[in-house]
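Field: COMPLEX_INPUT
Field: COMPONENT_COUNT = two
Field: RESIDUE_TOTAL = 597
Field: MODE = joint
Values follow.
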Amino acid sequence: MDILITGLLLGGTYSLIAMGLNLQYGVARIMNLANGEMLVIGAFAAFWVFTAGQISPILSIVVVAPLAFLLNWLIYRFMLLPLVRRAKSAGQLEVDSILATFGLAFVFVGIMIATFGGEYFTYSYLAEPFVILGETYALNRVVAFVLAAIMCGLLYLWLNKSRPGMAVRAVAVNPESSGLVGINVSRVSAFAFGLGGAVTAVGGTLISTFLTMDASIGVLFTMKALIIVIMGGVGDVRGVIVASLILGLAETAVASLIDPGLTLAAAYFMFILILLFRPQGLFGRRSS
Amino acid sequence: MNGNELRNILLAAAGLGLAALLPLTGSGYLLSLGVTVAMYTVLATSWALFSGPTHYISLATGAFYGLGTYVVAVGIDTLPYPVLLLIAFVAGGVAAGLVGLATLRLSGVYFVIFTLGLAEMIRQLVTWVQNNWGSHRGLYVLTDITEEIIYWELLAAAALVYLVGWWINRSRLGFALRIIGNDEVVAAHCGINTARSKVLLFMVSGSVAALVGGLLAPRWTYIEPAIAFSAMLSFQVVIMALLGGASRLWGPLVGVIPFTLLWEVISGHFPNQTTLLLGVAFLLIVYVIPNGILGRLEQLYRAAREGAG
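Field: COMPLEX_OUTPUT
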C-alpha cells in the first residue's frame, strides 16, 4: 500500500515532465535531449528563489513558466528551425536535432557547474507529515502530485477543447496537411516547443521540493521522460499519463523491495518489454 | 586491387610503423598521450564503421568498453590474459547483438535512447551485484604489462579495425549498409535484410570496443564500476568521429588527434569545463562542419580544382 501510493505520487509528477517532452517531440518533431536540463533549471530557479527570499516554490512557478517558455521558444526559433529547414529528410533532421540538443544539454550543464558548482542542492519545503489511509507521506510530495495533476488536466482540456489546441494536434498528426488548411506550422511548432519546455521546467520546480538534485542529474530525467513517452505512445496524452504512473510504481517498488540503486535498471526493464512487445505504445495501434 | 588502393595500404602501413616507434622517444608523457590517442582512434574508427554509413548514433561505446574492462578485471587471477581478451571480444559482440536485436528493428530514435542510458544501467547492475555478493567494491588488475605493450597492442587493434573496415567497404555488407544509410525503404525493397545487416555491423563495433576496454584494464590497476562505465567516453568517441568525418575510414583519426590534445589541455587547466567543451563541440559539428573536417577539406579541394580548371 505504501509502495502503491508513493509510486503513484512520484508517477504523477513524472507525467508532467513527460507531457513536456511529448509536446516537443510529438508536435515540433524535435527529440529534445536537453529536456532534463530544462527540468534542472526549473528546479534550480525554485531553489534559488527559496533560499534567497524565502519565496514558496509554488509561487516561483509564475516566473519559471514564462521564462522557460521564452527560452525554449528562442531555442526552437534560432537553433532548431534552421535545422528543420536545411534537413533533406526526416532521418537527417533526427540526427541533427539529437546532436544539437545533446550539445545544448552539455552547454547548460557546463554553465550551471561553472556558475553554481557541482554540489547537490536541496531545501526543505512543506516537509510535514500528511496522512492518507492511515499511512503518513511527506506533504510536499502530495502537493507536487496535486499540482501536476491539475496542470495535466488543464493541458488535456486545452488540447482537446480549444481551437489553438486543435491546431497543435493537427500539426502533431500531419504537418504538411495542416499547412494546407491554413495553420502556420512553424509558429505552432515553436509554440508547442516553448510550451513543452515550460511544462518540463514547472515539473522540475515541483520535483525539487522533495528530491535532492545536482547540475548533472538532468540526463537521468531525460531518460525517464523518453521511456515514458515511448511507452505511452508519441502524442498520446492518456497513454503518457498511464505510462508515467506505471514507471513511478515500478521505480518505487524496485527501490523499496530490492535496492534504491537500481531505479534506472527498472526503467530499462520496462523499456525493453515495450520495445519487444508494444513498440507502438501502450494504447497505440500498429501502423499498417 | 588497383594501384590507388595499393598506395593507400602502403601509406597506412608506413604510418603505423612510424607510430610504433613512439615509445623509443623515452618520454613517459608522450607515451601516455599516445596510448590515449591510439585508444580513441580504435574506438572512434570502429564506431564510424557502423554509424558512418547507417547514420545511427550509438552511445553504447562506454558500455561495451566497460564490459571488456570488467571481464579482464574479474578473470585476471584465474585465466591467462589473451583468453580474457578473447572473452571480452566475444562478450562485446554478444551484448551488441542483444541491444541491436531489441532496438535496430525499430526507428533510429529508439536506438539512440536505448544506448544513451546503457552504460549507466550496467553500472547500476554491476554495483548492485558487487555490493550484495562481492567481497569488496573494486577489483585489482595487477599484471606486468607495461604502457609500451598496451600501446603496441592498441596499434595492432587499430590495424585490425582498418583492415576490417576496408574489407567491409568492399563487401556486399558494406554496400548494403550504404544503401540503408541513404534510404532504408529502398534498401528493404532491394531485398536487403536491413535489420540483420545493421545488427551484424553493430556487433563488430561492440566487439572492438570491448576489446579495447580489455586492453586498457591493466593501465588502471584498480577498477570500480564508476571508472569502467563512463558515459563521457561514449560522447567523446561520437564527437571525435564526427569531427573528423564519419564517412571515410580514416576520417575519425583526423578528429581524434586535435580533440584529444584539446581535451588534455582543458581537463588539465579547467577540470570543471569539460562538459561545456563537449557541448560546444557538438554544436560546432552540427552548425559549422556537418560533414567533419575531412568533408570540409574535400569541399575546399573540389572548389579549388573547379576554380583552377
